[in-house]
Amino acid sequence: MSFSAKSVLLSSRAPRCWWWRQRQEPSCAAAGPAWCLLGGSRPRPILDMSYSRHFLDFQGSSIPSSMKKLVVTKLSQNFREAVNLRRDSPVPLPGDGDLLVRNRFVGINASDINYSAGRYDTSVKPPFDIGFEGVGDVVALGLSASADYTVGQAVAYVKVGSFAEYTVVPAKQAVPLPSAKPEFLTLMVSGATAYISLKELGELSEGKKVLVTAAAGGTGQFAVQLAKKAKCHVIGTCSSDEKGGFLKSIGCDHTINHKTENVESVLRRDYPEGVDVVYESVGGKMFDLAVNSLATKGCLILIGFITGYQNPTGLQPIKAELLPAKLLKKSASIRGFFLNHYFAKYKMALKHLLEMYEQGELVCEVDLGDMSPEGKFTGLESVFRAVDYMYMGKNIGKIVVELPHSVNSKL
């Protein structure tokens, strides 16, 4: 049966609510969305193809037999050295409960370098797939998966292996969408990280002073907006006046350009009592500055340290020997946050974020590289440029790479 015929059959099913369905929480071992950032399972080979032939027919559809994908072939914090583009990888086949997604947009994350360097799971050896999140269209699916999805449906997912033209995604981990828009991609990791970390660790309330470092980045933009929704006073650091303008447009009360201003002096002058919450992702000197800026009973939420990711050691020196005394003096605290440890909160967070975006209450800024020297990030080849662009601090919002497909679809 060709895809066209099967598509007609499957599309006759009753439509489902696009943004969420109640379903059983998958275990970590079962591989998961944000719950699968640490080395998700690779698409399993199908031994019994008797049912799958009804859903996947390379000869009768527009799906090719091979595809491009990025593969880590050497552990290194240098992304260009670690990752190779393979042009003739077999297109994976979906199992009974799986979707085959043709990726339209893939997200770039600072932690892509940590993953290619093998810092998350030392047991994983090259070669292995890379890329954490994608948005695309279902082009094939297994029998069980057809109970909830149809060919042609737009979905988002978080699963290792998104830097590919096609990715197999367990249906239970997919999020159905009204359309394949890059804005939805911003919420899957970046938005969920900001939402859950601030809700669980920030203890935000009206009038609190919140400092967001790298505030114009993929995650920072959401930390600013969510803190404002909690009626906090928000200060954001950034690296250009253009970024400062963007931050003001999404509600940031006070922007500090760390390229032209002394952040520590500005904070000491304008906030002599300190700030109540710091949302920190930069590391190094910014981390030290943030600790010094905490108010009595203040809390620093650590979600990353991007300045150390490209270093062989992974960390830049901090004044750790003074840290206990500084925290004790202020009854202050530092809380680390890693999305994988908050699986149980992910569904509700994503549901709320999607609702806010659909209602026009949340800006999801996407940077497709239009202002980069070589232009828009298009195709898997441009993932390398996109990673470089992020580490040069050029992006405003979430960096997204578009994957165009020249093959005419029969859907």
Automatic annotation (TrEMBL):
SUPFAM superfamilies, sorted: GroES-like (SSF50129), NAD(P)-binding Rossmann-fold domains (SSF51735)
Domain of life: Eukaryota
The protein's enzyme class: oxidoreductase
CDD domains, per the entry: Mgc45594_like (cd08250)
GO cellular component: mitochondrion
This protein's UniProt keywords: Acetylation, Oxidoreductase
Domain annotation Enoyl reductase (ER): ranges: 78-401
UniProt key word rRNA-binding: no
GO molecular function, one term: zinc ion binding
Enzyme Commission code: 1.3.1.48
Residue ranges of coiled coil: none
Similarity section: Belongs to the zinc-containing alcohol dehydrogenase family. Quinone oxidoreductase subfamily.
Protein name: 15-oxoprostaglandin 13-reductase
Annotated source species: Dromaius novaehollandiae (Emu)
Gene behind the chain: PTGR3
